[in-house]
Write a structure and sequence with these properties.
single chain; mainly alpha; globular
């Protein structure tokens, strides 16, 4: 039964990826898309659209959705909190703070807005996002070694997020309008920023990080039993918690650096995977969550580029519109099952 569900998810991802290649503001016939994908000569404009825009977006959405979903599952497990997500410890806010320092101060200090520097500006923003996220993550890891309770660590993480937002607010107030606009656009999130060599590097990084996250399924299963019971079974609670936080934080840092802060996928998808597979075993739940995240990200990217829209809608708006009904449906169904029992 579970094998058939995995097959359905894989088919859904394949279908959504194909539809992402077919649909957009420019209509391209199916036959021409197939010819372009196999390398045959065709319309040069259509070829550029497929290879430089739609295919990179689809691949980026698959990897980013899987990474954020797995990160959310890890956070919900380590904190045993259904509302925990990838941004719960302020790591996403750290990425935003790093980008804010680079983008919002570039015009004032250097005299040239970073948004005018093209690829150099994009590279600087990606590096700043990674540095900001990893800096906050190292701070969280250091704090995790000092405090024992998950609730205390969670509260500290939320406070770090508020502090980062406060600093960003001050930088916005002091920055030129053009730089503020560039930062706001980055904050809307997009799967279209990654292309060429950047896309290859992003996919390679995610193909390394996702299997490494799967290596933590055993301690994550033990953490579900409670700290005292897991410790009696020989699990080093503090070390395991730190490894899960680091794994989740690195996934968030990489995705945020390349795509901007993508909200709601990390929160909603683990609940969706649990509802579909009806298990808490992370050996099944983690790959299921990754596949559900990839499928949902592809769906959101497709909606954002639906024909009839000029350009594309902000991905964060679409993820909220799609994810909110999903999480509400899952919670209502869980409540209904509890009442039925």
């Amino acid at each position: 039964m579970r094998v058939s569900k995995f097959i359905v998810l894989l088919v859904a991802i394949a279908v959504l990826a194909i539809v992402n290649l077919l649909l957009g503001s420019v209509k391209i016939p199916v036959a021409d898309v197939c010819r372009i994908l196999i390398g045959a000569e065709g319309n040069e404009i259509w070829t550029n659209i497929i290879w430089k825009s739609r295919l990179p977006q689809a691949l980026t959405a698959i990897m980013a959705g899987a990474g954020l979903a797995v990160s959310g599952l890890q956070m919900q497990t380590v904190f045993r909190n259904p509302l925990a997500g990838p941004s719960v410890l302020g790591i996403s806010n750290g990425s935003a703070l790093g980008v804010a320092f680079v983008v919002l101060l570039s015009g004032r200090i250097g005299g040239v807005a970073l948004s005018r520097l093209g690829y150099l500006g994009d590279a600087a923003m990606s590096v700043a996002a990674i540095v900001g996220a990893l800096a906050v993550m190292m701070l969280i890891v250091w704090i995790a070694q000092k405090v024992k309770g998950n609730v205390t660590l969670l509260i500290i993480g939320v406070m770090i997020g508020y502090l980062a937002n406060a600093i960003i607010g001050v930088l916005k107030f002091l920055s030129p309008e053009e730089d503020v606009k560039a930062f706001v656009v980055w904050g809307l999130g997009s799967f279209s920023r990654v292309s060429g060599d950047e896309m290859v590097l992003f996919i390679v990084l995610m193909c390394i990080l996702l299997p490494m996250a799967y290596l933590l399924v055993k301690p994550m299963n033990l953490l579900l039993l409670g700290d005292r019971y897991a410790a009696n079974l020989g699990l080093n609670i503090r070390r395991s918690r730190m490894l899960v936080i680091v794994s989740s934080g690195v996934l968030v840092a990489i995705v945020t650096a390349y795509c901007g802060p993508i909200m709601f996928i990390g929160l909603a998808v683990p609940h969706l995977a649990r509802a579909i597979f009806r298990t808490s075993d992370h050996r099944i739940l983690m790959p299921a969550t990754a596949l559900c995240g990839a499928a949902l990200a592809l769906l959101c990217n497709l909606i954002a580029r639906m024909p009839g829209f000029e350009g594309a809608l902000p991905v964060n708006s679409v993820t909220a519109l799609v994810g909110a009904p999903v999480i509400a449906m899952v919670l209502f169904r869980r409540r209904k099952d509890e009442v039925g029992e």
